Amino acid sequence: MIHLKDSNLKIDQKITYLVGDGSVSNKAIAPYSDIVCEFLADISISLKKKNDISNYPDLIAFSFWCRKANLSILKKKFYQTSHIRMGRGIIFHVSPSNVPVNFAFSLCFGLLAGNSNIVRVSSKYMSQVEIICEVINALLNQPRYLALKDHISIVQYEYSDRVTSLLSSLCDARIIWGGDKTIQDIRQFPIAPRCIDIAFSDRYSISVLDSHTIEKITPQEISKLAADFYNDAYTMDQNACSSPHIVFWHGNPSLKGKERFWNAVYEVAAIKYELTEIKAVDKYSKLLDESIRDSNIIKVVNMENLLIYVEIKELNKNLHQYRGINGLFYSFELKEINDLADIVNNKYQTLTYYGVDKKILENFIIENNVSGIDRIVPVGRALDMDIIWDGYDIISYLSRIVDIK
Amino acid sequence: MKYDKGFIDELKNVPVFSLTMREKREIYVRLMNELVSHHYSKCAEYKRVLDILEYDFSVKHDLANIPFIPARLFKLHRLSSIVDSDIVKTIVSSGTSGQSRSTIVLDRKNSLNQIRVLARIISSITGKKRIPMLVIDSPAVLKDRDMFSARGAGILGFSMLATKVEYALNTDMELDINKVKKFSEKYQNEPILVFGFTYMIWEYFHKALSESTKSINLENAIMIHGGGWKKLIDQSVDNSTFKSEIKKISGIRSIYNYYGMVEQSGSIFIECDRGYLHTSIYSDVIMRRNDFTICDNNETGIIQVISLLPTSYPGHSILTEDSGVIIGEDDCSCGKNGKYFLVTGRIKSAEVRGCSDTFKR
To answer: A39 with A94, same domain?
Structure first.
């Protein structure tokens, strides 16, 4: 047991405990333990009962993910392998300040893998963080979850080298969300020899759509596709690492299909997207700035600032630098899927697809020895967080194998 | 190029707040289309922007359809419509360290036109005769003569209109009350101009005087100030508070705010007796919604500023990051023609969403 309030550590005055009291167990438990699964399922139930939950699509998604039925499926899959596993010990999570529910997923991953957790959340107020911590605290006060009490600390502290350094030195695994800059900041602080880092760096994501298929689908199907694409892209203003920036058109090119797609997405954005003045100016500035810098941009279609798409002339190795924002997309017609092999590097994370056979995409990855793309999911699921993320099997990473022969 | 000599000449005998909507429209459609063509042929970046926006040169565009460049583009690119050997001045916007700054290049003609137009606008308040000026700033701002800060450029521009210039602050930004007293006593029988940046006046003139036991009397002075309200709004100081406070500590009753930016120096928008900012014959203003359609009067939007002056850089039509509201046109009770409007603040910076962010928050 470690006590963060131990005066010898000289850090406590800087830490605010949203959950926990500074006692951190270093006792690992087996992955998917009954107590953890029940606890998370109870979080799911408690969240669902919250009155204002409907205002938070991210909380709904989180609560849906940690429901009992899903955890049972994950547990079953996990135990199909023959190895015995245990948690690593203490996990130090550094969560991002601008995806409110991210810290909760990270915590769940740590718990499911059988660990004790110290989660640093941003000092910035976020109502989702408050709601989840309230739910967790209420559950931890129940006698049956007493054993988990010292396995969950959710803390806030103003940026402090001393605290980060201490937490880094005492953990057995460190999870760093927040991209390249954060990783660079946190990696300055050494970890113990046996400790591992999981770092989620800046990534880039794309879509592959079949325009010929899109031309033919029913009005219901196109509406669904557009709403799904909207969710992937606009929910986080295209700042999420798995939100698409370029749409690659695959298959028999159909101008009608392409235009039908953009119009449909525009219609969703017109209803749902809150385009503020600053977002419009940011987008317009970025468009003109990039046009000046880059002759690869050949045509711009601006749909009332809500959706702007930019046709690019040719594929090149710098395409991952084309970052859209607030509904600014790049568009390119592929001759064949294998053309992507030359440009995909390890910056590429998620490929969302529609109207393209999954098998073709799978073959594309294997046959071309591509170094990037860790996720291939249908349009609409780009933001679905899960235990496999960014190329990691997170539960396996956060646990150790006990090899018994 | 006929507008090079022509456009200022064309307006030189026209009173600066005289043109009606219809008269102005006739002149602006002609001159703005010419300015667009001029910059298109001289500035490669501007040409690229218009090409990508598919600007149509086969028709004459109404003012509403003249393309606008986001002010931010001047921070990201050095936009010039002249050859480097013609540059006589480079103005760099003030900005705290770490922020990128706008760079504006001026040739002799553009630079002179700025001063001419500024003089015409200011003299509508101070009269045709040049008068002594008290600058509420430190002479240290003018140190670097090759790279003017926007503050320095503003002071220098106004200095051209004065018979005598005195700086109220020393190099440590402290108010020299004795110097100010001497200055006001020396010119007690004639009008003087007190010029400075809104925030500087508040921070170094108002605060120093309200904390001092000494008092000054600048009853016969006219104060002209600009540069933005951001820092004052943070302290809950608005225009009317500013006026009454300044009057209380210095006796100055005639106080005029102006709205202007380094990208359109010279053709500033100055406040009238009714408290509204006015376009002159050299400038115009349009408020735009977030889809860039044009706002109705009394509807707040993003401010687009238009000026006939910029010839050495494509700053004739700029989308600012300020928001404002047009109250009316040609019917302000102050008697001036032109649009009259209010600046309501900066457009709010967006809350960044997404996975990538810095840990230090």
So the answer is: yes
pTM of the model: 0.90
Quote the CA–CA distance of B12 and B18 in Å, as a whole number.
12
d(CA A92, CA A162): 14
Q: Quick one: which of A327, A355, A354 has its CA closest to A245? A: A327
CB contact under 8 A, A277 and B302: yes
Tally the domains of chain A. Answer: 2
A241 touches chain B (CB under 8 A): yes
What's the rounded mean pLDDT across residues A279-305? 94
Rg (CA), chain A: 23
Q: Which CATH number among 3.90.1570, 2.60.40, 3.40.50, 1.25.40 corresponds to the domain B107-259? A: 3.40.50
Residues A232 and A373 in one domain: yes
Does residue A226 fall inside a structural domain? yes
Residue of A125, A288, A298 to mutate when probing chain B, most B C-beta within 10 A: A288
Chain B neighbors of A181, CB-CB under 8 A: 356-359
Q: Domain coordinates of chain B in residue numbers?
A: 1-82+271-347, 107-259
Q: Is A381 on the interface with B (CB under 8 A)?
A: no
Residue A383 placed within a domain:
no
Whats the size of chain B, residue-wise? Answer: 361
The answer to whether B290 contacts A178, with C-beta atoms less than 8 Å apart, is no
User: Are A290 and A167 part of one and the same domain?
Assistant: no
CA A345 to CA B89: how far, in whole Å? 45
Interchain proximity B319–A305, CB inside 8 Å: no
Q: Do B49 and A277 touch (CB under 8 A)?
A: no
- pLDDT at B357 exceeding the cut of 70: no
Q: What range does the domain containing A102 cover?
A: 2-200+390-402
CB nearest to B52's CB, from A99, A276, A297 = A297
User: What pLDDT, in 10s, does the model give residues A115-163?
Assistant: 999 999 998 888 999 999 999 999 999 999 999 999 999 999 988 888 9
Average pLDDT score, chain A: 94
Write the residue in A98, A180, A306 that is nearest to B353 by C-beta.
A98
Q: Place domain B1-82+271-347 in its CATH homologous superfamily.
A: Luciferase; Domain 3 (2.30.38.10)
Q: Nearest-CA distance from A265 to chain B in Å?
A: 16
Q: Rounded CA gap, B323 and B289, in Å? A: 10
Instruction: State whether B355 and A200 contact (CB < 8 Å).
Output: yes
CATH, residue A279: 3.40.309.10
Amino acid identity for residue A320 in this structure: H
For A181, nearest residue in chain B (alpha carbons): B358
CB A139 within 8 A of CB A46: yes
CA distance A253 to A34: 52
SS3 A210: strand
Contact with chain B for residue A288, Cβ under 8 A: yes
Residue B149 confidence (pLDDT): 78
Q: Which of B355, B358, B361 to mutate to test the interface with A (most CBs of A within 10 A)?
A: B355
